[in-house]
Amino acid sequence: MRAKGILGLLICIALVFSLSFAQPASAASADEEEVMKVVTNFNTALNTLDYNLMSSLWWHSPKVSSYEPSTGFPFLYQGWDEIGAYWKANLAPSDVITNVQTLHQPQVTMLTNDVAVTTTYANNVYTDPKTKEQTIDQLRQSLVVQKINGKWLIVFHHCSGLPIK
User: Fold this and answer.
1) Alpha-carbon distance 46 to 94, whole Å?
2) pTM for the full model?
3) Is residue 72 over pLDDT 80?
4) Which residues on adjacent β-strands are paired with residue 110?
5) Coil, strand, or helix at residue 15?
6) Domain-by-domain residue ranges, the chain?
């Protein structure tokens, strides 16, 4: 009987010990929601040509990077100075072509308590205001976001076109 009691006590101690390292489900879901808000705001900044919103989503560091293969060369932008200049130029209002991006199947994968990867598919519909002609691009997009000083910020972005069948 004493052996069963000791075994039960050891199991309880092991359970309490393992649970002390587990992140509460509510905290994980709250972080996932905050990360998804970054994805949503990224999309909003693109659709509204809001450079200030886009800028607020990024970590302003030389360590950030972004792959934009659809832009030609250079397609790798490193550091906030280069990335910020890219977004400033590309989010400038234009009377030539308008763009609306819609997201499909956005997902968040928490890698640690302060790092997450997001993936989504996007449709970009470009409309020429003069001819009303529309062009549609299908893209895959990934963001790596990190919680820095209590705020989720983009540290890496990748976007590329889906292969045409």
Assistant:
1) 13
2) 0.77
3) no
4) 116
5) helix
6) 25-94+109-115+143-161
Q: What type of residue sits at position 16?
A: V
**What single-letter DSSP state applies at residue 110?**
E
Distances (CA, A) of 23 to 28, 34, 87, 147, 152: 7, 16, 36, 16, 18
pLDDT at residue 18 in the model:
40
Question: What is the per-residue pLDDT across 130-146, written as a single tens digit (0 to 9) for each?
Answer: 888 888 888 899 999 99
Q: How many CB atoms lie within 10 A of CB 54?
A: 23
Q: Give 79's Cβ-side CA count (13 Å radius).
A: 3
Q: Is 96 exposed, middle or buried (0-12, 13-18, 19+ CB in 10 A)?
A: exposed
- For the chain, the residue count is 165
Q: Which residues pair with 135 in a beta bridge?
A: 126
Average pLDDT, the chain: 81
Q: State which CATH number among 3.10.450.50, 3.40.50.300, 3.30.230.10, 3.40.640.10 fits the domain covering 25-94+109-115+143-161.
A: 3.10.450.50
CA 162 to each of CA 22, 70, 100, 135: distance values in angstroms, whole numbers, following the listed order: 37, 11, 17, 15
Q: What is the CA radius of gyration of the chain?
A: 22
